[in-house]
Amino acid sequence: MVALKCLHVCCRWKLFQKYSITGSDDAFGRSRDGLLWCKDFGHHVNGEFSMASVQANLLIEDLSQIESGSLSLSDSGPFGSFVGVYDGHGGQEAAQYIANHLFGHIKRLTAEQQSMSLDVLRNAIHDTETGFLSLVSEQWLLNPRLASAGSCCLVGIVCDGTIYVASLGDSRAVLGRLVRATGEVLPLQLSAEHNVSIESVRQEVRSSHSDDPEIVVQKHNVWRVKGLIQISRSIGDAFLKKAEFNRKPLMPRFRLRDTFSKPILSSEPSISVQKVHPDDKFIIFASDGLWEQLSNQDAVNFIQNHPRKLTIFKLVQFLFLGELREGFCSLNSIEGSNKIQLLAELWQGIARRLAMAAMQKAAKKREMRTSDLMRISLEVRRHFHDDITVIVLFLDSSLVGEISSSKGPTVSLRAGSMTQLPANSLAPLMDR
């Protein structure tokens, strides 16, 4: 009898290993195709988090980071959580610069003001933009391509029971708020989008450049600023902000025919500030690679309807008993290997599973299997989907309301960079 039980346990474990993408020793996720970066589970000052990034471009241009602990250079705080999603274009340089400098500016300015505020966030973004444009100027003759590098920038800070969100470009932050009467979770978009595919954004750009009838034009059925770029606000893109970079030695395909006297793109962020509500459950921070595939409601429903993680206790319970209890009972009606496959997916973090849901949607649009999509080489994969970056920040009401002098766990992680990764960064966890 004991031998038979051990055999059943071993069989379930073998199947679980077959379907699972297991974590490495440092608990970072592992990718089947080498194109996934993830931190499945972690703790921040205000709760738990999960993050993932999927590469589609030949060089991944999405970078992201999460910082938890002191938001100031001072040891006395304030303490909170910082999230950044930087969707680069024209190269990774602008996104990398933001990842290296923005949080440092926030800590410096918070120390000067002795508190977190909307002005701290706005000024930190301004200082980051100024620093990158200065770098472009310094390297103009040696590396003129840097003038065409830019990045969307989405930043979220949770501190003292307040949520601050700043955005430039078309990445998006969506809050999931529970409706107690129905048990539903409603999506509340916290960020503004600056993409000229949106009529109101086109009107805004035209109003700011009323003397230029070609400020926004359609090219290949896509609205673009000056026929070049879809977003109207960014960090970087010096060639569209300063006329001095709209000339040789910049590559001809970036140079405009006519000069300009004021910036074509803006570096002014849209910022929202709101108090955390007791029914606020989580915030999804993601690049447009996710939102091109999933609606706000799709994303919050996915998180609400899927357990955020399968604990070791639950896994052991299943291996020895062949069933699950306390919140997972509905899985017991699923038969055999299908149940084990589902459990293996639950072993992965919710951000990784959300990114994979977007991949499945992209594959479905092309009437193909997700596994086939994941085998497509990077040279052509971008035609099916963009880089996808997801960070899910869960909000624990018992922690969010605490005074910011409470330090909580210290976290400093980055995902997406291909070169010069700090030791605490997330990296591709499969041999290339």
Can you lay out the helices and strands and say which pair or pack?
Layout: H1 2-19, E1 36-44, E2 47-54, E3 62-70, E4 79-89, H2 93-113, H3 118-138, E5 150-151, E6 153-159, E7 162-168, E8 172-179, E9 184-189, H4 199-208, E10 216-219, E11 222-225, E12 235-236, E13 270-275, E14 280-286, H5 288-291, H6 296-305, H7 312-321, H8 336-346, H9 350-365, H10 370-374, H11 378-381, E15 388-394, H12 397-400, E16 411-415
Antiparallel strand pairs: 1-2, 2-15, 3-4, 3-16, 4-5, 4-6, 5-12, 6-7, 7-13, 8-9, 8-14, 10-11, 14-15
Helix pairs in contact: 1-8, 2-3
Describe this structure in words.
The chain has one domain (31-195, 231-309, 347-415): 4-Layer Sandwich (Phosphatase 2c, domain 1). The protein has twelve helices and 16 strands. The protein has helices spanning 2-19, 93-113, 118-138, 199-208, 288-291, 296-305, 312-321, 336-346, 350-365, 370-374, 378-381, 397-400, and strands at 36-44, 47-54, 62-70, 79-89, 150-151, 153-159, 162-168, 172-179, 184-189, 216-219, 222-225, 235-236, 270-275, 280-286, 388-394, 411-415. β10 (216-219) and β11 form a beta hairpin. α1 (2-19) crosses α8 (336-346) and α2 packs across α3 (118-138). The model is unreliable at 11-30, 325-336 and 418-432 (pLDDT under 50).
CATH architecture: 4-Layer Sandwich
Question: How far is the N terminus from the C terminus?
Answer: 45 Å
Q: Give the SSE string.
A: HEEEEHHEEEEEHEEEEEHHHHHHHEHE
What's the number of extended β-strand segments?
Answer: 16
Give the overall shape, derived from the CA principal axes: globular
Integer average pLDDT: 83
Largest sheet data:
8 strands, antiparallel
Q: List the domain count as a whole number.
A: 1
Percent helix, as a range, is 25-40%
Radius of gyration: 23 Å
